[in-house]
Amino acid sequence: MQSGNERLPVFKRVGGFLLIIIVLIASFLLGIKLIGMFSSHEPVPESFLAAGSFFNSTIAIVLSAIALTAAVVAYAVTFLTSCFTFDFNKPFFASFKKKLYLINIAVGLGLSLAIGFIISVPITPILIHHGLPEPLPFIIPILASLICVQLTMVWINIWAPLNRAVVRKRAIVLGVAPPDLAKGVLVGVSDPGKSSFKKLTLVEDDVGVLWIEPDRLVYRGDTENFVLKREDMISVKCKADAGSMASYAGAAYPILQYRSSDGSEQSIRLHSWGSWSLGELSKSLRLITSKLKSWQLRTPAENS
To answer: CATH 2.30.29.30 spans which residues of the chain?
Structure first.
């Protein structure tokens, strides 16, 4: 059994985050350039600033409140409706992750606009004073806010409570008793042989509950189920997934290699499900890996 954690090298992890920042900044600059091409190229008159500052600030505050309210309402409705999933008697995850992908964009945009409009109150007059042509003084705070919100949402998962709730609802419908549910670990699964770069939405292929029992591993998911006996296990490896942002925060995913009933070697990758941040996700993956390796070695699992 390989015991090493094959995390991404530090230079790749740093490079990944730098690439995201560069792309966002480049998009910001490109947006300013394109907007500048259609601007008046005339500085905003100081008289306009003096006469309209109160009016413009009032509008900005109102628009910020509207955008924030829309984002909060969209988040609340999404959570209360389980991302518009009303029937857990049938598989839900394939459509769930597509809907969540779009809603996440909408909520992120609402938060960006809310922050952008409110910071434009002090920033826009300064940009006008420095002679920027219209509409750049009004657009730059919004674009800057969009970058900051996107970077924050890369690290923080605002949908963690929803992710945990939908898996539990599906498991209960499938017949898992609440006491048994509490003993399991919420995980996602994917095929380590397929690149996650090709997946536009969530990298998990399925989500469910994993139980580490004395002589076997039991997984009950939305569409997939498996039982792995100890004698079928070949190894528990730990490897980064270059297509997952968590790997750039130092995470490495446990990969179960086992022998199927026909004697062929198979593997499956596990994902921690429902973490609030990339840091928490990395910690959770380390704990799951530790328990799995201890289980295979017939030693008490750490932190059990």
So the answer is: 160-296
Closest Cα partner for 154 from 277, 283, 290? Answer: 277
**Fold of the domain built from segment(s) 160-296:** PH-domain like (2.30.29)
Other beta carbons less than 10 A from residue 89's beta carbon: 8
Task: Give the position of tokens 């309210």.
Answer: 69
Residue 283: which of 235, 239, 240, 246 has the closest Cα? 246
Return d(Cα 122, Cα 131) in angstroms, integer: 16
Query: Which pTM was predicted?
Result: 0.81
Q: Tell me if 53 sits within 8 A of 125, measured CB to CB.
A: yes
pLDDT tens column, 116-153: 999 988 888 888 777 776 677 788 888 889 888 988 99
pLDDT tens for 34-43 read 655 555 555 5
Tokens representing 63? 């628009």
Please give the distance of CA 176 from its chain centroid, rounded to a whole number.
27
Residues 172, 174, 177, 181: is their CA dihedral positive or negative? negative
Q: Which two tokens stand for residue 231?
A: 């004698």
**At which residue do the structure tokens 């969209």 appear?**
74
Q: In the chain, helix, strand, coil percent, each to 5?
A: 55, 15, 25
Strand partners, 254: 238
Secondary structure (3-state) at 302: coil
Sorting pLDDT into bands at 50, 70 and 90, what band is 301?
Answer: very low
Evaluated on CA atoms 153, 158, 160, 162, the torsion sign reads: negative
Q: Which is more confident, 267 or 57?
A: 267
Distance (Å, whole) CA 218 – CA 280: 24
Spatial separation of the C-alpha atoms in residues 135 and 132, rounded to whole Å: 8
Q: Dig out the tokens for 85 from the structure.
A: 């999933």
The partner residues of 188 in beta bridges, in order of sequence, read: 207, 271
The per-residue b/e assignment along 202-222, b for 16 or more CB within 10 angstroms, e otherwise, is bbbbbbbbbbbeeebbebbbb
